[in-house]
Amino acid sequence: MTALPENWEGSKKILVIMAHPDDPEFFCGATLARWSSAGHSIAYYLLTRGDKGSQDHAVSPQDLAAKRVVEQEAAAAELGIHSVQFLSYPDGYLVADLALRRDIVRIIRKERPEIVVSSDPMNIYSDNGVNHPDHRTAGQAVLDAIFPASGNYFFFPELLVEGLTPHSVKELWFSIPSAATVNVTVDVTEHWEQKIKALRQHKSQIGDPDKLEERMRQRKTAGSTAEAPHYEERFHRIVFG
Ligand SMILES: [Zn+2]
User: Fold this and answer.
1) Which of 75, 121, 232, 237 is most buried, with most CB under 10 Å away?
2) Which residue range(s) make up the domain with 212?
3) The whole model's pTM is what?
4) Predicted pLDDT of residue 4
5) How many domains does the chain have?
6) Which residues place a Cβ less than 5 A from the ion ligand 1?
7) What per-residue confidence (pLDDT) applies to 241?
8) 107 CA to middle of ligand 1, Å?
9) Do 235 and 174 contact (CB within 8 A), yes or no?
10) From the CB of residue 110, how many other CB atoms can be counted at a distance below 10 Å?
11) At what angle do helices 98-111 and 133-144 cross, to 10 degrees?
């Protein structure tokens, strides 16, 4: 077990709950690679299959979704992810309602992770553009599921009938935080190439893979050099008391 500045002792169970195939890799793939190589167990739950992730009218949403599932599984394998599951919410239409909250509580109570990773609901837009509403919604629904629902016996009693007893998550890490909410920066220099390899698996999404690779390499931190590039991923980390 490698010591990490995350200050975790022993092997942690980490659940990544995000909206679309490719979100985990784009948002925090190098950090996930760092965690899996340190011996932590990581599972993905993606709320949609990304069936609107194309401007090509000739592709059916069903065919696109099927392709993206395969791409996502290949990308996750590059990062050492243990399992990838998909929920069947339609892409682009996510709403942080009680049905979605219950589905996420069900996942959390079943998997019983210590750490959950999602996307920051506070990130609406920035100089980099407008954040996809599904990314915000996924983060909001995950937050609402973790607190106070998942750990409270009285929320969603129908889940007790399924044998799913309350479970309290210890930490929530929001990827793609807004500039105002970032509070953790992870050095992922050693895992940047692994992130790029994983991103290359999302063939239907990345256009020219060599150009993507070039763009990703340019994301080195200010002050690092071409010979010794340095890469980071940022989060808003919430530690529950
Ligand atoms: Zn997305």
Assistant:
1) 75
2) 13-222+229-239
3) 0.96
4) 59
5) 1
6) 20, 23
7) 83
8) 20
9) yes
10) 15
11) 60
Residue 22 CA to ligand 1 centre (angstroms): 7
**Is 1 part of any domain?**
no
Dist. CA 136 → ligand 1 center (Å) = 10
CA distance 34 to 187: 9
> Residue 8 falls within a domain, yes or no?
no
Query: What spacing in Å lies between the alpha carbon of 53 and ligand 1's midpoint?
Result: 8
* pLDDT at position 1: 38
Ligand 1 midpoint to CA 128 (Å): 15
Chain position carrying tokens 């659940």: 15
Tell me how far the alpha carbon of residue 132 lies from the centroid of ligand 1, in angstroms. 7
Q: Is residue 7 part of a domain?
A: no
**What CATH number is attached to the domain comprising 140?**
3.40.50.10320
User: What is the pLDDT tens value at each position of the chain, 241 positions in all?
Assistant: 344 578 899 999 999 999 999 999 999 999 999 999 999 999 999 999 999 988 888 889 999 999 999 999 999 999 999 999 999 999 999 999 999 999 999 999 999 999 999 999 999 998 889 999 999 999 999 999 999 999 999 999 999 999 999 999 999 999 999 989 999 999 999 999 999 999 999 999 999 999 999 999 999 999 899 899 999 999 999 999 8
Taking the centre of ligand 1 as the mean of its atom positions, its distance from the CA of residue 79, in whole angstroms, is 18
